[in-house]
Amino acid sequence: MNWIVLLMFGLLALVPGRQAFAQGKSATQPPYVIDIAGNLKNHRVFKLSEIAEDVSYIRLETRPDVLVGYGSIKLAGKFIIVGTYRKPIMLFTREGKYVRSIGFIGKGPGEYKNPSINQIDPVKEELFVLGSGNDRIFKYSFSGKLLQDIPLPQLCTDFYRFDNGNLLLATGRNYKADGFYPFVLLDPKGKLIKENQSHEVPVGKYIAYGVRPNFDAASNGSVIVNNFGRDVIWQISPAGETRPYATLLLGKLKTPDEYYYDQAQWVQKPFGFFALGFSCSETGPLIKVSYAYELHTETGYFDPRTTKLLFRDSTKVGEYGFHNNLDGGPGFGFTQFFQENNVLFTSLMSVDIKENRNFYANQEALYPDKKKAMLEMIDSLDENDNPVIMVVRLRKEP
Known about the structure:
mainly beta
């Protein structure tokens, strides 16, 4: 299938190394109009071979002093960077060998609490981390050296570093009573460029203080703002300009958080921790939108050329992600996969793939030799081993 691509998931094309998914230009550009409600019956089984040509696996080295739990990963040039809850950021080679940790967990100077590894410059071999007090951003080299300490003008719940070095902050603890939710744009040295670059937030049943947006990269150089607004998904440019990314035709659909609120409202009143808005991002060649449908949450994947629904991740029916028919092994479920250049990748817990070994053995596979190697790799694992990185190489545009 001749995919014309956008970008990213997930998860991301704004830093060197986060480039568009394929070499050809997209046939369409934002703002999109996505008819979610009208497309719910227009979906099918989606096979990984339709967009990918190869799959491989990287075992992360396991040692008593190098234990990785659930967290996030990033392929960064010749390295793999892993962020795990309340553990220092870990650096591995692309072959999975542990190299070093970067920074420290704590509340002191240069220390962080829960590392975010989305903001990485693989060319300069630098990464950016939000400090433990949410009031500073630290820049580290891959060698572990603290290069920069950037004080922030406001507390920050998420941030994004643009290609030009500008920093966009989501100041989620500073929701204003006048109905405006401030975003703050800083230059690379932390100097204020713009603030209050936002649109009016509709105050009502599903929103109170504490709503927190988060960011996803867009292939056009902007950043997509999630959990902010409802029928319109917004994007912000490196210069701080705010404009629509997509208009969603929802019908009677709800956001996942509206659904959870409705289910729980008989025991609690809204107290400010429900995120408002639909989640939307570019994942591989598709646009991904999260919503609630028939008392369960789903993620729909839309073709950006037509904005037609291709397939759905559903918590109800258990059919989700790309079906891996390359080697019959693990698929990509829900939102837990990411993109770098022309590959998708995800982290697989060893205990999980060992439990599913027999299921994989009975799945169809276009490449029997790869299936055999995958099963042998699983057989060699201990359930307490560090995660395995699954890497899928995508087809390039002809």
